[in-house]
Amino acid sequence: MKNSKRLFILIEAVLAAMVIVLAFVMLQEKNGRDLDKVSVIIQNSDDNQWSAFKYGLRMAAEDRKIEMFVVSTGGTLTAEEEKSLIEREIENGADAIIVQPAPDADTENMLRDVEKKVPVMLAGCTASKEKEDSALPVTEPDHYAMGTALAEELLKDYSGNIEGKTVGILSETADSEAAANREKGFLAGLKDTGAVISWSVYDSFSETDENALEFRSRVDFVIALDDNSLRTAGKYSAAKNLHGALVYGIGNSTEAVYYLDTGFAECLVVPDEFNVGYQSLTETAESLDDYFHTMQNRTVSYTVIRRDTLFSKENQEVLFTMSQ
Predict the structure, then answer these.
(1) Locate the Periplasmic binding protein domain: which residues (predicted)?
(2) What's the per-residue H, E or C state across 52-119?
(3) Each residue of 145-199: pLDDT tens digit?
């Protein structure tokens, strides 16, 4: 019995020593090589809505001494296209990947396979429509809460009485976790108010269908659930093609702010995209620095901005990050 106990203690000591040696070797390798490289893959990467996000990435890269590269993309990527880009980046030396997951049923499994090779951090939303179904770490705002905030702002403007008012919902996609939870939050906020959802449109609004909205039935309010949709609704409002509907939405670009400032949008809920970038890269850097670190989910804040508070001291930092 004593011999078995001694053998057990000896094995434990050997394993502990091996872990220490492994950690030392990995540290030596890290100190003797170039900076860690992180590749970032987002949809339509040159779009204005990513300015604050990319500024956050750059600031975190400087702070953590990381080599960061945003892959040039155009339009919406499929899971297969994202896979090809990720594989190319890994072949070119990427030590980790930050990715905005494609709204595709195959994305989750594809990214889990990638995670077996390098650390993967999701940015903006999970790869599954149900957040709890995703096993991958994500840095994102609380999408449900933003949708609810949008409903609350609408109700404030009418002292809670919007019975019989009609609503049109505009979203770039219905297939992402972000879009699904924003819509759920908004609808929950309108529960028992007597408002009527007249239509929901899920479209990226390319040039070929730019006139689609003006042929929808007239509504009192258009609710835009993402930056692209907000800009589309703002453009239609400016052209007087929304039949007098008021626009409330979620957006994070200087163009979205323009429509708020000029009165073509009533309210803007702005996710903190700077911190989506900063925290996603910071968490990824932790994983590269510490082999035993498990990346955690990060939730960032959001800000409600009205035209009369647009240039308040509290909102200056938000506007600054959008313009970088």
Answers:
(1) 39-282
(2) HHHHHHHHHHHHHCCEEEECCCCCCCCHHHHHHHHHHHHHCCCCEEEECCCCCCCHHHHHHHHHCCCC
(3) 999 999 999 999 999 999 999 999 999 988 899 999 999 999 999 999 999 999 9
Quick one: pLDDT band at residue 214, thresholds 50, 70, 90? confident
- 109, 127 Cβ separation under 8 angstroms: no
Question: Do residues 232 and 209 touch, judged by C-beta distance below 8 A?
Answer: no
Using CA of residue 140, residue 146, residue 147, residue 148, what is the dihedral sign? positive
The pLDDT-based confidence of 104 (bands split at 50, 70, 90) is: confident
Assess contact for 101 and 107: CB atoms under 8 A: yes
Q: What is the pLDDT of residues 230-250, one digit of tens each?
A: 999 999 999 999 999 999 999
- pTM, 2 dp: 0.87
How would you class 161 by CB atoms within 10 Å of its CB: exposed for 0-12, middle for 13-18, buried for 19 or more? exposed
C-alpha triplet 56, 61, 67: angle, nearest 5°:
135
Q: How many CB atoms lie within 10 A of CB 24?
A: 10
